[in-house]
Fold this protein.
Amino acid sequence: MITIVGAGPGDLKKMTYEAVEAIKGADRVVAFSRLAEKLTPIREDIVAVKRLSEAEENMDPALHVAVVVSGDPLFFGLAGTFRGRGIHVDKVIPGLSSMQCAAASLNLPWQKMRAFSFHGREPEVELLLKEPLSCVLLDKHFTASDLSKALAAKGARGVIHGASYLSYEKEKILSASIGEEISIDEDLALAVIEIELDE
């Protein structure tokens, strides 16, 4: 049996009770290295992996395996990746997504926020231009500053909020006008964009 467990953004206080119980009750728990370290107060025998192939190698059909991921497994997460690879998942336990946490930190209602991921993908900045409110997952190859400049080059006006390490001790959230530099850590980063649309 395979359960994918969403651990939320990183702070154990933001995990659901169901997620904690799933980690405690599994025969084997697999998590990527940074997250595995954070989970040791719940369980110490977590198998820390660095690559998806290592996680797959630890999935034994005779065991109940919990694969723990940061954020929500269905928000640009592992559940979609497993589905694409034809790996059967028996249960998905949701977690707080980085988008939810960013919206809360910025006090922005997010029911109309559009979600995009440029993390490990080709940035399609044009998709953001008609959205008054959007959230974009980023990486070191396309940063919040890169996004700010790219939006300005396409004539966008408004505000960009950059966030990194949400809920960790080194959480950083900065806001700037679109086009300005916005220096946040490149790891675990996202941007929330408020674009001024013409009437």
User: Anything to note?
Assistant: DSSP finds six helices and ten strands in the chain. The two ends are 52 Å apart (CA to CA).
